[in-house]
Protein 1
Amino acid sequence: MVHGVDAVPVQVEATCRNAGDGTPRLLGLVDACVREAYHRVLQAFFALDLPPPRGVTTVNFAPASMKKQGSGFDLPLALALAGAAGLYPPERAEGLFAFGEISLRGQVLPARGAVSVAIAAQQHDATAMLCSPADASTCSVVDGLALFGSPTLADAIYWLAGRRELPPPPPRPPVAPTAVADLSDLRGHATPKLALTVAAAGGHNLLFSGPPGTGKSAMLRRLPGILPPLTAPERRSVLQVHAAAGLLVTGSFPGTCIGTAAGAIGSERPLRAPHHTSSAASLLGGGPDVRPGEVTLAHHGVLFLDELPEFRRDVLEALRQPLEDGTVTVGRAQRTVTMPAKFLLTAAMNPCPCGYRGHRLRPCICTPGAIARYRSRLSGPLLDRLDLLVEVPALTASELRGPEEPAGSSSALRERVMLAHQRQLDRQLSQSEFVANGRLEDRQLLRACAAKAPALNALDDILRRHHQSPRGRVRLLRVARTLADLDDREDVAEVDIWQAAALRGLTTTT
C-alpha cells in the first residue's frame, strides 16, 4: 500500500467455509474502495468463466492495524480468492508481490503507485511482481526485480498454475524530446541570465523582481532547459513520485490508452508552477491517503512560484522546512509520512502593487503604506533562504532590437552549467551522495571554497556594511563558490564575493 511516495507491504490471505450465512468478510481495516473490489473481482471471475470460491469467504489484510485503501488491492484480492478456490498451488504465490486494478471484464489495469510497490518488492527480496503490462513497463526502471505484466486476471491465474507464460515487460517507449523555449529568444537581461546560470549550476534558489512584461516568468520557465539532465537514480525517484501521485495512470476501459507511463518522464527535470491561490495542502501534500504535493512533484526539478506575494502567508512559511531539509513531513492521527522535496525554488514578483515602482517611463501610483504592506507579505526568514535576489528592469526599444547572442542560448549556458556541475562532482568523489553548492553545510563549504585573504576581507566588508546574518554569510559563500566553478577556477576570488553580493541584491554603498 502506498503512503506518500513509499509503499508498505500488505499480506492478503483468503479462506472458504461451506457453512455460515453466506456473507463475505473482509478483515483488516479496509475502506469502501477495497470492499467494492470484492464485487468487481467476482464479476471478473464470471466474465472470464473462472470458477469462483464456494461457500463463505473470509479475506484478511495484514497488518490489521493499518487502514487499507486504493484500487491496487484488486489483483492480490483476486489471486487470494483464486488460491482459496484451488485454481493454483498455494506455494506458487510465496514471495509474490501483486498490484493492480481489475475491471468488470477481467482486465488488469494500472493503479496509482506501481513504482513505489516495485521498489518495496525489491527491498523485501520478492520472488516476482505481477501487475498490468503498462505498470510492468514503468517499473522496469527498478533493477533486480522479476516483473510480469498480465493483461487479464485469467492470464495471471493460469501463469500461477503453470499453464501459461507471460511475456516480459514491453520496452519503455523512447521519450520524444519536448519543445523547450530557448533563452536566446529573450534579448538583453545579461544579469538575470547570469543569475539563471548560477542557479542552475549550484542549485541556488532565485527570486526575480521587476515590472510586468519584463520577461521574469519567461526566463524562469526556461530554466529547466539549462539544468543538467536527470541521472538514472534521479529519474527513478521522479518516476516513483509521479506514479505515487497518480500522474502516470491514464485510461480505464478497453479501447483507450491504458497506462503509459513509462516514457512520460525523460531526462529533463520537472517544472511545477502552481497558481497563487494554491493551498498549503496542495503544495506540501495531504489528503486522506496523503498524496504528494507540488514540492514533492518538483523533486529533482524546479518549483516556480509566479506572483510570489499573492500566495497566502501560511503557504509560503510552510516552504521553509522543505527548503532547509529537502523533505516534507505530513502528520496524520494514525501515521506520519515523510516525502522527498529536493527542488530548486524560483519565484517572480512585482516591486509594488501597481508593478511600476522604479520603471523608467511609467510612474508608480502606490502609496508608501501600500508598498510596505505588499512587501511585508514575504517574511525575512523566507527571503533569507533565497540565494539570489535579482531585479529585472524594463528594456528599451533599442535593447529589444538587439542581435541574438549565441553565448546566451540555452545550449551554450547548459554547457557552462555541466562543466560547473562536473567540478562539484570531482570535489565530492569521497561522499556517498552528491550535494550541490547551494546545499553545502558549513564544514563542507569551508573545504570547498578555499578562499584567500582578499576574498575573506571583501566578505567581512559586505557583512559589516549590510548587517548580514551568519546564514547570509553562508549563502554568499555558496554563490561565490558557484561563480568560481562557472569560470573553471579552484579558488574563490574577491571578484566572486562582490559578484555574489550583487546577485543577492546587496550594493556596495554604506
Protein 2
Amino acid sequence: MVQFKREILGNGLKVLVHEDYSTPLAAVNVAFDVGSRDEDPEKTGFAHLFEHLMFAGSKNVKDFDEPLQNAGGDNNAYTTNDYTTFYESIPAQNIETALWLESDRMLDLNINKKSLEVQRRVVVEEFKETCLNEPYGDMWHHLSELMYQQHPYRWPVIGLVPEHIERATLDDVRAFYERWYHPANAVLSICGPIKSDEAFRLAEKWFADIPGGPGGFQRQLVQEPPQTEHRTKIVHSPQVPVPAVFIAFRMPGRLDPEFYPTDTITDVLAEGRSARLFRHLLKEKQIFSQIDAYVTANTDPGLLVIEGRPSEGISPETAIDAIWAELETLKTETLPLRELDKIKHRFESTIVFSELSIMNKAQNLGLFELLNGAEHMNNEVGLYMAITPDDIQRAARRFLTKENSATLIYLPGTRD
C-alpha cells in the first residue's frame, strides 16, 4: 500500500506526494497525458521527438543535465502510445533543483531552428538504427499495421516513417508543445524523505505561475472495430539471421476488468523457466530456441504478443502450430489452482519489491493518476490475486482466437 496526498494547483497541475524516509534520495516524476496516439497520422513521431526536445534547454536553463548533475542527480524519460514521462533522482536536500528544471521547461521550452535541427537528426538516426538497420527492428511497424486499421495505435511510438520528423516545421512543433505540455495536462509526483506540506509548498512555488494551457479539450480517438479475420504477413530481410514468428491478439484496455486475467495468461505462458511455452516448446520439445509472451498494457485495447525463434531445422509453420496447440490447452483444460497460485505469489513479491524503489512509486503514481486516479494503484494487487482458473479459461477462449489475431513471420534473405 502506497500512501500519498494530492493537491491540484490553480492551473490544473495535479501534485501527488508520498513520504518515504527509508532513503536519502527523492524522486521527481512529471507525466504528461500525451503519447503517439495523439499525433496527426501525417505527422507521427512527435511525442517521441519531444522526449528529446525537452532536454534541449529552456528559458533559464541552457543545459538541462549540468545543474542536475552538479546537484548529485540524474534523469531520464520515456514515451509510450498513451503518455510521456520525465523523471529525476536527486538527494532530497537538492529537490528544488529538479523542480526548478521541470518547471522551466514546462513554462518555456527552447524551441528554435537550431534545437529542432539537432534533435531531428538524433531522432531520425535513432529510427534508422533501431528500426531500419536492426534485425526484427521494424516488428512494431508490421504488427501495428496488421492489428489496427483505424485507431492511432496503428503506428509505433517512434513514428510511421522518418520523413514525418524530417519534414516537421517549427510551427508544427510549437503547436504540439502548446497543446500538450502544460500543467493542466500533467501530473507531478514527488517521493522521498520530505514532508507533504513542504513538497506542496515547493510545487506551488515553482509551478503555480505557469499558465494552465488550452481548456475545453476532450480526446476523441477513432475506436478500432472488432477484428473478424486472421491476418498474416511474411517479411523477407537479409538483415535477419534466423526466422522469427510473432502472434498478436487484440486484448482489453488497461482499465477493463478482463485486462487482469488476460495479462496473467502471459505469466502462465512465459514467466519463468517453469512457464508452459518455455517448459514444453523450448526445453522438452526443443521447437524454439527462444520464446516469450507479453502485453502492451495500453490505455485503449492493446495487444498480447507471443514471439519466438524456431530452433534450427524447425519451420515457422511447425513452430506456430505448436504455439496454437498450447493455447488450445489453455482453452479446453482448467488451469491447475497450484499453478495459478505460484504465479500470484511471484506477482505479489514482485510488487512488494518494486515498492521499495521511490522512483517506481513516483512513476506509478503519475501513471495511475492519468489512468483513473492514483488510488487504483493500490487496488491492482487485489484484482490480480482474485483471479480464478475459470477467469483464465474465459479470457483465453474470448481473446486467443484465430479471427482475433495476426501472424508476422520473418525469414532470412530476399524474396525469390
Protein 3
Amino acid sequence: MTYTLTGVTLADGTTTNVVVEGQTISSVGSLTVGELIDCSGLMVLPGFVDLHTHLREPGSEDSETVLTGAKAAAKGGFTAVSAMANTSPVADTAGVVEQVFRLGKEAGLCEVFPIGAVTVGLAGEQLAELGAMADSAAQVRVFSDDGKCVSDPLVMRRALEYVKSFGGVIAQHAQDPRLTQASQMNEGEVSSRLGLAGWPAVAEEAIIARDILLADHVKSRLHICHLTTKGGVELVRWSKSQGINVTAEVTPHHLLLTDDLVESYDPVYKVNPPLRTDADVQALRIGLADGTIDIVATDHAPHPTEDKECEWSAAAFGMIGLETAFGVIVKTMIETGAMSWPRLVEVMSTNPAKIGRYSRQGGAVTAGSPANLTLVNPKSAWQVDREKMSSKSKNTPFHGTALTAKVIHTIYEGVFVVKNETLTGLKHE
C-alpha cells in the first residue's frame, strides 16, 4: 500500500506531504505517490504511546478485553499501549504476558506491550519471574505492581537491582499502604467536610522520596506512576537535578479535575490515586511543561456499570481515558499556552516510547521512520459522550465536557486503523 498525506501540518507548523509505502514513511516533502489523501487542516504526529493502560484481560473481560481496549486506543490516536499486570491471573509469569502479547497481535489495531508484575500475585513479598518475562516473546521491559505499592524497601531494592541487568524499569504506584488504609479521597478540606476518610499527600511523597534514594543507590531506572501532588513534583524535580535516573507520568484527569468534584458523591470521580487540589493541579501542569514530568499516561481503568453506579464507599476506583486523553491535554496544556505542540509530541509519543524501549514507536515524522501516525484536527469542537465510547466500559469523568481537538485518523504500521474517526474493517471485525 502506497499513499500520500497531502497538505498536512507537522508539529513545528510546517505544511508538507507525507508519503507512506508499506509500513514506512518513505518521504516528507513535495513528492506525491500512490493514492492522494487530502489532509488539509490536519496535523500529523507520531502515534501516541500509553505507558499505563488497564486492559483487564485475562480475568475481568466484563470490564474490558485486549480487543476492546485496543479499539479505544486506536480511536484515541494511540499506536501503542502498555497493559498493566493486575489481571487474573496476575501477569507475573512468562505465560501470562505472552497471552496478552498474542491477544494484542490478534487485535491488530496497535502494539500491545504487557507490563510484568514486580512481585508474585502483586503481594509485595517475592519477586516475580522478571528474567523469564524479559526473555519471553513479549520482551517485557516495564514492571509494575500498579494498583498496589511495592511497599517493602528491600523488595523494591532487589527489583531495581534485578531489572538493571537487562535495561528494565520499575514503575511504582507510590502509595504507602499504612497511611492510606480505608482512604476514599484526597485528605483535606473537602474530605473533612464530607466525612470521607482522607488520603494524605505524604503517603505518595514518602514512597517517591524513598524510591528515588533507592534508585540512586543501585543506579537503576525508576518510573513514578500517576504523580498527583505538588510535593511529589518537587521531589522528582530534585532527583533530576541530582542526575538520578527517574522518570514520572501524569494522567489527563489529574491535570484537569479537582477534589471538590467529590462533593457530588458521584463515584465516576473516585480514582486511585485521588483527585487532588487546584494547587496540585497547577504544580502538575508546570511540571509537565518544564520537563520535570516526562510523559502523559492515561491510567485507563475500565469498570462495569454496577461497580460505579452505587454508593461512593462501595464503588471501584478508576476512570477510562484512552479516547479523551488527547483532547484533555490540548485543553489543559496547549490552549492555556503552557505547552507547545512539539512538547505534546514528547510527552505523548517520544518519551513514553523511550521509557518503555518501544523501538518502532515515538519516532519523528521523517523518511525511514515506521508509519505509526496520528492525524488530528486541532480546531474541531466536540463533546464527550460516554455512549459513543469504543471501550467496553463507560466510566469517563469527562461525559458532557466540551473539547476542541480530536483524532481524525490513526495509522498503525502503515494501515489506517481509524479513518475519518471510524474504526476500519480489519481482522478485528
Protein 4
Amino acid sequence: MTYLPQDMACPIDSRYYGTNPDFLKRLKPYVSEEGYVRYQAKVEVALAQVLVERKIAPPSLAQELEKAAQAIKVEDVYAEERRIGHNIRALVNCLKQHVSEKAQPFIHLCATSNDITDTAMALRLKELTRDILLPDLIRLENVLIELARKHADTIQMGRTHGQHAIPITFGYSVANYAARLGNRIEQIEQARVNLRGQLSGAVGAYNALTLLVPENTVDFERDVLAKLGLKPVDTQVSTQVVHPEYVADLVHSVTSAFSVLANIADDIRQLHRSEIGEVHERYDAERVGSSTMPHKRNPSNFEFVKSMWKAMMPRMMTLYMDQISEHQRDLTNSASARFITELMTAFIYTTYRLTDAMERLEVDSDAMAAQLQGTEFEAILAEPLYILLTAQGHPDGYGGARKVVDQARTTGNPISALMWEDDTLAPYLKNLTDEQRQLFENPQRYIGASIQQTHATCDEWSSRCARLSQQLSGETIPSP
C-alpha cells in the first residue's frame, strides 16, 4: 500500500518534510526509518570487518556482508520484524539471506541489539549534523552577518520592556543574534564530535567478547568503532546502552539553538507590527495574507518559527527522562528515542524557513528614523545628562536629569533647551566638551559603540564559522 503525505498523522511528514521534494531528498538518508536500518547495517559490516581481521570469521564475511547491506530491502526487514517481533534479529535474518552459509553464523557475533542501534543512532546524528544541520546553520549565520554589516549604521531605537530606551543601530541588534547563534553552532559541533558508540555485549561488560578475545576486548570494540569514525565511552564502562548523556548533550545544544531562532523570529515579528513597521518580509505577488482582508502582509514565516519551537522545545524533557534506564537496560526509551530525528528534522526545516525569510527581509530606515523624533525620543538624553552631571561633580545627577525630563513632559519643551535653562545644572554643564555638547543637539549621535562592535562581531563570527565550515568539509567518516 502506498501512502501519500496527506495520509500521515505527523505534520512534519504531511506539511513540511514530506511535501518538499528537495528537503526530503537531502534528509531522507539520515532521518527516515529506511536510513536508520541502513546505518544499523553499516555497524554490522564494521563488526564483520574486525571479526575477519582478528581471524575469528571467514575471510569472505566482510565483503559478502558489505554487498548484503546494499542488497537488502528495508520493507523485507520490517516484514521479518512483524513475523518474529524483534528489529535487530530481523535485520540479521535478512542479511543472512544474502551471504554464504559459511558466513551466516558470524553475522552479529558478540553484539547485542543496543550495540547496533545506539551506535547507528550516534553515527546517523553525527553525519546528519555534519552534512546538513551545521552547514544550514552557518548559512543562516552568514545571512545575519551580511544583514548586520549592511545596517551597521542604520540608527534604530533600542527597546527594553517593550519601551523606548536609547538608540542603537539595527545592525548591532542583528549582530547580537549572530553572536548568540555562532556560540550555539560551536556548542553543537562540540557535542557532535563527542558522540559515542559501543560494542560491549548484553550488559556492557564484554562477556561474549572475552570468550573469543580475552586479552583484547576493549581494543576490539575500539577497532569496530574506529571504522565508523566513533569512539567508545570514556573508560569503556557501560551498561547495555551507550551512556545517554552524549546524545542528550547534542539535542540540548540543538534545542538551545532553536530558542535563539525563536527569539530572532519573535523580535522581527514585533518589528512588523503596524504601529512600528520597521521591517517587512518581501512577498511574491501571489502571496495571500488573509482570506478576507486583501491588504494584509503577515509575518507568517517568523510566526512559523516560533510555533515550531513551541512544539519541539518541550521534547528536550523526553531526552532528560531517557537518561534513566533501570539496571543494565530497559525498554522505556525504545519508543521515545525514535522521535529524536523528528526534532532534528523540525529544527533543520525551521532553519531553512528562517533563512529564507531573513534573506527577503526589507528594512525601512525611514520608519526607524520616525521613532527617533519628538519629546519622548528626546527623553533618551536623560541618561547621558545624568552620567555627565555626575562626572562633573553634581551630588544627584540622576535626580537632576529626571527633573528636566519631567519638565519636558509637562511643558512639551525639549530637554536640550530646558537643561541649559536650569540654574542648578548650569555650573556642571559649562565644562562639557564640544563633542558632548553636540550630543545634546543631535540625540541620534548617542549610539555608543554600536557601529564598531557590529563590525567586530561580524568579523569574529565570519572567521570562526569559515574555519568550522572548512573542518566539516574536510572530515571524512570511513564507510565500512
